[in-house]
Amino acid sequence: MLLNQKKNQRRWSILLACAAVLFSQKLLAAQPMMITVTKGFGLTLYASELGDAKQMVLGDKGTLFVGSHKKGTIVALVDSNADGRVDKRYTVAKGLDNPEAIAFHHGDLYVAVDEKIVRFVDIENRLRRPGRGKEVYDRLPGKTNKSRRAMHFGPDGRLYVAIGAPCNVCEAVAPFGSIIAIDIETGSSEQVATGIRSVTGFDWSPMDDALWFADQGRDWMGDRLPPDEINRLEKTGEHFGFPYIHAVSVIEPAYDKPKNLKITLPNFELPAHVAPTGLHFYRGQTFPAKYHNQMFVAENGSWNRSSKIGYQVVMLEVEQQKVVKRSTVVSFLDGGFPVARPYALLTAPDGAMYISDDLKGNIYRLYYKDIVKKETEQTAQAEETEK
């Protein structure tokens, strides 16, 4: 009898212990993830369930187009009531091979797929039935898993395409490892920058139309090497060092630099492995004045470092054509756990900033809260005056 009581007590102890563990796990799962935002700013969820959401582009009517790398889709997002959250979405294309690089120009959407660039004509008026994209260029190099691409139309009207190297470190055959500019009407192209490794973020400064781009350094040189790069193009045809020199002074042991090769060094070094995937100059007016026309960078975050680094959006202050300061605006790193991996950035029509997240397939909207508060107060005062 006493023995049975002890066995039953032991069983209850085990059951209670298991229940306690399960309860604690549910509590941990229910705890919100910590996202840190600079004072004065707010962050909301603009859209979700987009797969590996990567590069973004805005249409003339405010439609946000999002490209993916693995999912193979181009999605169009519409906020028809302007409440800061998507209420309509359309699939422009699906089943494509890594349609990450997208651009918008004169009403048309451009997508890089395999060796081609295709155009979806008058896309914002055809979101329900976009049809097939029409080929406008067919001389991109063959796509590889390691070669990442990005596209933007420049101030000169040409389509600029960044074509990453197809390797961790190698002497890539052109146009791999370069940025080219394409005249869509004639099909002629020009190499404007060479010696790059992996560029998915580039933009032109609103102050002087200079081209800036972020380049990710090679892997497997340790936690602290080599630094990632922020570069500024001074003249057409500059070589930015890959694979011979990484960042300012890290010499590549596997390849010797040609004697007569002149290399342009980075304008600014980022910490190693923060992985800058997006670079964008803020063109809105609702952020405080110190943010106007400044460079924002999406640090996608480390994948093979002993401790996590990156996973944030930073502002790089530019003075007299040099980056002078780097400060965090949004951090998605909760302790050592990444809540999101920011990939691309874009100024929204209302002056907020869109942030794509290729970890959870979200688009976030970064806004300045004091502006919203001020507008609410002004509206209340106007209504009071009318009474």
UniProtKB/TrEMBL annotation:
Keyword set, alphabetical order: Signal
Pfam families, per database record: DUF7133
Residues making up the signal peptide according to the UniProt record: 1-29
Residues annotated as domain DUF7133: 34-357
PANTHER family listed in its UniProt record: LARGE, MULTIFUNCTIONAL SECRETED PROTEIN (PTHR33546:SF1), LARGE, MULTIFUNCTIONAL SECRETED PROTEIN-RELATED (PTHR33546)
Full protein name: Putative L-sorbosone dehydrogenase
